[in-house]
Amino acid sequence: MGTSGAAPAPALTDAELKLLQALIYQECGMHFDERRTHFLQDRLLRRLKECHVDSFYSYYRLLISDAGKAELAQLLENLTVNETSFFRNRAQLDLFHKYILEDLLRRKQERRDFSLRFWSAGCSTGQEAYTMAMQVADALAYYYMRNPLPVETPSPKPLIPHPWKVEILASDISYSVLRAGQDGTYNENQMASVDYSYRLRYFDKVGDRYAVKKALKEVVHFDFHNLKTEYLPQRNDVIFCRNVMMYFDEAEQKRLIHKFYRCLNPDGYLFVGHAESLLGMTEEFQMVHRNSGTAYQRIEVRP
Ligand SMILES: C[S@@+](CC[C@H](N)C(=O)[O-])C[C@H]1O[C@@H](n2cnc3c(N)ncnc32)[C@H](O)[C@@H]1O
After folding, report:
1. Cα(263)–Cα(247) distance, integer angstroms
2. Does 158 or 16 have the greater pLDDT score?
3. Ligand 1, pocket residues at CB < 6 Å
């Protein structure tokens, strides 16, 4: 009788699991509790096979070696959940569009500070950052419809009216999603939540895909940032970090919330996912709630 060709999958011991969990947590903050151990084991096994390594311990040794840096990045890519969509959580985006942007534009204009910085932290394939860009461009256009500029605006009107400067940073730990976001083309399924007026104004149809128009693309900049590290982008007016912290444990969430506090301008806003909350986690933010949409604003100690 012939034997089957495939070698049995190596077993994952408790000690190996703990070592790998600790390494992943240390590298990116992701925490795999009992409910997610099966997922972790499955993804580890795939990488083991890909690397032709015969035990989880050998794979761990590879990851901590100098030669294993690229493999570590590859493993983290395989562990991230990249689910996202345009206009995700409408109530929250209404709050952003109708209340927070309005407040920001008014405050900044009063101070004659015409710079706006937004950050989509854990941006996945870019839909969140491009949604923000569309809403910012619309908010500026609407603001100037009601408060016309004293100077004549050129025709056609630029997406971002002079003298404003808008920067939207979209960051992630996964290079493959960053590449997709930078590419900025989406299929019909991904466009399901984009209504026709947005499609007409902000996308070109290229074959069977929708490509983000150049002017909108220029506002969004994609970059690698690991939220576990201390050195994160500063001076933001608004940070969106939605559906990212839910993969971290409480200690790491608290550290991240404090880092976001430092990454925001005074009175800046933080948006988290609808299954995430800052309640009981910090004294540095206050909740802003309008029509079912929630965000958190930095609390300032004023003299
Ligand atoms: C579920 S997606 C959320 C996408 C988007 N924010 C949204 O709500 O639609 C989570 C993203 O967080 C990223 N991520 C996970 N851990 C990270 C870390 N330590 N640093 C940066 N990004 C991380 C993942 O790669 C993934 O693309």
Report:
1. 21
2. 16
3. 28-30, 80-84, 88, 122-124, 128, 172-174, 177, 226-228, 242-244, 247, 273
Which residues are paired to 224 by β-bridges?
172
The token pair at 228 is: 């576990």
- Write out the CATH class of domain 14-79: mainly alpha
133 vs 220: CA distance, rounded Å: 7
Instruction: Report the pLDDT value the prediction gives residue 5, as an integer from 0 to 100.
Output: 61
High-pLDDT (> 90) share of the chain, %: 88
Q: How many Cβ atoms from other residues are within 10 Å of residue 181's Cβ?
A: 25
Q: Answer for the pair 298, 266: CB distance below 8 angstroms, yes or no.
A: yes
Domain positions in the chain: 14-79, 90-298
Q: From atom 12 of ligand 1, which residue's Cα is the shortest distance away?
A: 122
pLDDT in tens, 153-177: 777 788 998 889 999 999 999 999 9
Report strand pairing: 236-241 vs 293-298: unpaired
User: Do the domains spanning 14-79 and 90-298 agree at the CATH topology level?
Assistant: no
Note the pLDDT tens digit of each residue in 83-136. 999 999 999 999 999 999 999 999 999 999 999 999 999 999 999 999 999 999
Mutate which of 26, 85, 172 for ligand 1 pocket (most atoms within 8 A of beta carbon): 172
- Beta-bridged to residue 34, according to DSSP, are none
- Among 90, 120, 124, 263, say which to mutate for ligand 1: greatest number of ligand atoms within 8 Å of CB: 124
Q: CA 109 from chain center: how many Å?
A: 28
CA-based nearest residue to 111, from 262, 266, 263: 266
In this structure, what token pair is assigned to residue 36? Answer: 């997610």
How far is residue 75's CA from residue 53's CA, in Å, rounded to a whole number? 14
Pick the CATH number of 90-298 from 3.40.50.300, 3.40.50.1470, 3.40.190.10, 3.40.50.150: 3.40.50.150
The predicted pLDDT at position 1 comes to: 41
Question: What is the pTM for the complete model shown?
Answer: 0.94
